[in-house]
């Protein structure tokens, strides 16, 4: 299935609250053959960051997208700019050793600084607000979370985690379903599409050639010649190519696609709730919970509840996203039973078997970054910076990321879809116990 066209309309952003509150400019379609130092495929956060950082290094850059800038997960996500990776530091130490886990943590901390630097340098108003809460839906999970908070302060010199008892959490999240957790005051939440739009504007103003509605259909390379990226209407000859497609690979590079699996997430936005909304999250934090099929939520600037959750097992979006996501929303906030839903949308992200991103040089002249596994807002920006730095000759930070184990998924596309369905069904059942 070609996910670039399976669930959306060509060249149109998802019908989200983000799109309704943004003014995304359009960029031209590539219609003539051109050449450059680096061609970046995909104008999400990874591609935009890569292009920006390459241009700052003095390279000529062409940025291609099959639809629009930040059309995919970068313009549809929950907006949580979190710390670290999808695996916590306990697990990274176990798998990779203490020294390497520390190097990964430092890189993830740099990712948040990269976000803030880009916004400051290019005057991007991504509507950043501090504070993300990890809420535990089972009492047995709380102790480990509090020990993690303590470990991060002592071993990683990270003072921004604060342990929350059930009573403390309920002061911040007006929901009966959580038993405690932690708050990360060094993380925050944003308007994701505004970030994408701002990055594209900055890249274009610096001289990056940005093209929308320019789907890449093939990458060709002959011996002793530069590779050629072919779109539906033209081609780009480039010294290096960066694949920043995440869940929308659509068979473009098998070596990457075998290690990255697309999955769908869904969100809704309620009507403006006013003081009622403010009472749900009195200090305007973002929240995600401990379910495998995770719920994540926050308030918009207009006091709408933006809520993500629900699961499906195929690559097609369900016909009724509103009903799908309303169910977990009411499990968290039963007091919203009478609230109108104004927006509902889906999006495709990508996971790896390890839940760690796939960022590396795939072959000569070809780099790839994808598979952020639901933790990509900050890490995708950093992956772009790291790849740009490597193309410029400094591979030190790319070397840290390329050591992350990223095994292939079993089977072909259809088999993987069945395996995903089985796994999601099993973990959704476990969430109930």
Features:
about 425 residues; alpha/beta; 9-stranded mixed sheet; 8-stranded mixed sheet; 14 helices; about 35% helix
For the biggest sheet, the summary is: 9 strands, mixed
The proportion of residues forming helix, as a percent range, comes to 25-40%
* Number of H- or I-type helical stretches: 14
Shape: globular
If you compute it from the alpha carbons, what radius of gyration comes out, rounded to the nearest whole angstrom?
21 Å
Low-confidence stretches: none
- Overall residue-averaged pLDDT value: 94
The total beta strand count reads: 17
| Structural class category | alpha/beta
Cα end-to-end separation: 34 Å
Strand content: 15-25%
State the gist of this model.
This protein has 433 residues and is α/β, with parallel strands linked by helices.
Task: Describe the overall structure.
The mean pLDDT is 94. Helix 3 packs parallel to helix 8, helix 3 runs parallel beside helix 12 and helix 5 packs across helix 12. The strands form two sheets. Strands 3, 4, 5, 6, 11, 12, 13, 14 and 15 form a nine-stranded mixed β-sheet that branches. Strands 1, 2, 7, 8, 9, 10, 16 and 17 form an eight-stranded mixed β-sheet that branches. Helix content is 35%, strand content 23%. By secondary structure, it is of the alpha/beta class. It is built from 14 helices and 17 strands. The longest helix has 24 residues.
